[in-house]
Amino acid sequence: MAAQPQRIALLGNPNCGKTALFNLLTGSRQKVANYAGVTVERKEGIMRTAGGRRIQVLDLPGAYSLNALSNDEAVTRDVITGHSKEALPDLLVCVVDATNLRLHLRLVLEARQLGLPLVVVLNKMDRARQLGIVIDVERLARELDLPVVGTVSVHAHGADELRAVLDEPLREAPPAHWRQPGVEQVLATQRDVLGIFNRTVVQPAVDKDPSIRIDRFLMHPLWGFMVLGLVLFTTFLAVFSGGDVLSGWIEDAFGAIAGAVEAHMDEGLLRGLVVEGVIGGVGGVIVFLPQILILFLFILALEASGYLPRAAFLLDRPMSAAGLSGRSFIPLLSSFACAIPGIMATRTISHWRDRLTTILIAPLMACSARIPVYTLIVAAMFPNDALSASLVMVGLYVLGIVAAMTVAWVIKRSDKQASASPLLMELPAYQWPDVRSLVIGLWERAMIFLRRVGTIILALTIVMWALYTIPSPRSAQRGTPRSLAGELGHALHYVFAPIGFNEEISFALVPGMAAREVVVSALGTAYAMEGEEGDVDEQLRERITNEWPLATKLSLLLWMVFAPQCLSTFAVVKRETGSWRQMWIMGGYLFGLAYLASFITYQITNILTVP
Amino acid sequence: MDPLVANTISLDQLPEAGRATVTGVEVPADPAARTLALRLLELGFVPGEQVHMVRVVHPSGEPLAVRLDHTTFALRRSEAVLIQVIPVA
User: Fold this and answer.
1) Alpha-carbon distances of A465 from A261, A404, A513, A532, rounded to whole Å
2) Which residues contact A236 (CB under 8 A, 6 or more apart)?
3) A32 DSSP β-pair partners
4) Which of A75, A404, A422, A538: disulfide with A40, CB 3.0–4.6 Å?
5) What is the ipTM score, two decimals?
6) In chain A, which among 267-306 make CB contacts under 8 A with chain B?
7) Which of residues 8-37 of B touch A (CB under 8 A)?
8) Which of A187, A212, A424 is opposite residue B54, by nearest beta carbon?
9) Which letter does DSSP use for residue A52 in this model?
């Protein structure tokens, strides 16, 4: 008897529901990493077959064709043609959308040439029935000479038939004969597809898909943009208002923990480290988890529903003014949560210059780590005027976007042989987001964030606490010997004095290089605030209001908008572009922009405000 | 142009809400454009298929949303010019 499959790989077009199926098969038993040497996300998990065997499942990036156009497609091609370090799967599970067989069958015919055992999965069978599409599954299996099963990846038992097929012994596949096809082969394959399709599928004469009618409205030149504006407004409103409430709870919890530790530990260095270094530092960052998760929830839900590609479509024209295409919209939107997933999302952009430009401008989108610094300074500028404070906040976001578009425009202008950017993308049918996939997606983001807090941010806060404490206790007043941090701040201050930064700010920017969120707690430590987290923020705001000149506040705000920060962003740019040069170009232009903007702002404000 | 005359036009010329039959895809010699043309063929823009212009967002004529069988595609004009169609009256 032939062996049963131990390692399977899911292959399919984008939007075939492959990831939802993967989530259904593996549940939470999955692992996200990168393919060796490239940056495409590699998702692998463990599933149980109907017979109870545990087998490995690899979720390959979506591909329309093995004739790869994007990074994603190239990875898929290399894995299943044996041109990667990945072992070949025992069985290829080719996932096709039952409502869109005409488009998806072609990949099955192409995959049949790979010499791997193959199973075809007709996904979204429930939706096909609703649309009145009738598929003769047995006939299709005969025509393809492959096992064919139906699944519904949004139902708990939707993949039972597939789980059963995976216990059957592997069939022998014909030898591999896949080659990069030319025009003639593509046309010949399409004729075969059409033949099989006509013999096995009956669909109603009138297209019943409601997506067309929805699109007429959502992509209307006027209504479409109004809806888009409303969607984005609601998203950011939810991030700020909903995030605020949840953040307040987390803040209270950390305050309570700090209080409990203080009550049970003896006064001394160790208590200082635990309360101020660890609890204060880590707590100060975790409070932003709700905001990040709310933004990601909106992005994931909008993407799963099919709306985000429409938004990208509507914005294609405005973005082309800056030399980009609508394809850059989704990565840039993600960058408002964090530039790292934003930069990773650019891998679907097939045009290299567009992709590079998007990577270079992604850090200008105001990521959530900048919110605490913006909030602190803006609140200190307008202690009793919430409206002005909100307007300035919006202004900072807009400034980042305008700067990004300007930079993109400059890059396009400097590219002498600029070719037209492609847009070509599928606008998938609207659907309700799959709750399981949303939960798993959010869980992944939360874990990435918490891992970062537990490693880099925790380490930084401890190091910072030490720098402020050694050699003299940090509560020392001015005039006494400086701590190491004080020395460093003093040295940096020479660089930053022309843009109005004092020693405390200069030093706080150092840990900010690794994680922007830390700037606030670093300032708190620099000004040697005592007490619970909330009190520290309060005291800090008062001192900023009273001690910093307006020019310094404005200058620091502009610095935060432009400055290259967060080493993780540098690392991901290096990895995604595969080039140190691009990384330094990004760092250099952001630093130059930040210094220039802060310098001009500081000097002009000084002239205007100092008599 | 008289829409009743079955003249071949490129897809970007098809007005909003218009329907047409694909007659072919132009495959240019330039490698990047050739790859794009191949992809259009792979996505199903092959002779005999029916297309329907769902939306043209901007008066400049791009981007445009085209329905092909059960799929809607977003294209720029530079992509749509490669696709030849005969409008259906």
Assistant:
1) 17, 35, 16, 16
2) none
3) A43
4) A75
5) 0.90
6) none
7) 27, 32, 35-37
8) A212
9) -
